[in-house]
Specification:
The chain folds into 2 domains: about 5-160, Rossmann fold (3-Layer(aba) Sandwich), CATH 3.40.50.10140; about 185-280. The chain is built from 8 helices and 5 strands, in the order βαβααβαββαααα. It has helices at about 10-30, 35-40, 45-55, 85-95, 140-155, 185-200, 205-235, 240-280, and strands at about 5-10, 35, 60-65, 100-105, 130-135. Helix 6 runs antiparallel to helix 7 (about 205-235) and helix 6 (about 185-200) runs parallel beside helix 8.
Amino acid sequence: MTNNIFVNYRRDDSGGICIAIYKELVKHFKQENIFKDFNTIKPGSDFVVSINNALNKCNLLLVVIGRQWLTVKNEQGKSRIDDPYDFVRIEIATALKRNINILPVLVDGMRMPSENELPDDIKGLVRRQSLVIHNESFDQDIFALVNSINDILGIKNQQAKMAYNISTGKVNPGEIVKPESHMALSIVCIVIGLIIVATNQEENDTAVMAVGLLMCIVGAYALYKANIVKKTWLSGDFENARKHSKAVKLISIIGIIGGIVLAIVVTIFTGLSQVATMLEQQN
């Protein structure tokens, strides 16, 4: 059976962050399996019929709740949540009646509404465990959301599982281990390169200095790749994160060992050339 996700939200309350959440979700789940009104309902379609059909097919209702979720008013000045024809309320009430999985997602520092703040037909929402998404920890909170969705829907997709527990910072047994960025190795390559350049400036040994500069360039490239490891990991692209991690390690090691060996060879060759020149001059 296809796992479909229905995103319930108020445009006047959480439209902006809801779009950001949607864009992250499509990285982990098929776009056609995520229903969101702004890009799912075709022009000319009956809004009510489209929503009802989507709810009939959905296995999970994400209820995005922001600071104004309870207080947004309609044209008559009445709180929308108290309007029996409010679409947000209807969607939640329908999901509760059909026993559809519901996951409240709290954004913009919003708390979970209390039972006495909700109409009778959606009071059951308060008994559903919520998840919080903060702007300052958006990437990590999205990971937690993806994990929760996988657990609720019973999706066994290792690539969509976190490799570490956000709250403890520890690796979760049985899950993918976060790859090392090897940033330290790239920095070591740069530092050694700078040392080689600095120590050969007085003697104006351009050949050895060139090797040092080459090491700095290699180290800088490895450092750039190390940042990509983090970005690809946070985006959920774990396979590429591992590939970039291996590349950083390999580039850094080659840069360090190759640079040192090359510097030694160049130094020896330069020294032999100087000795040969002195012998020629003596003869």
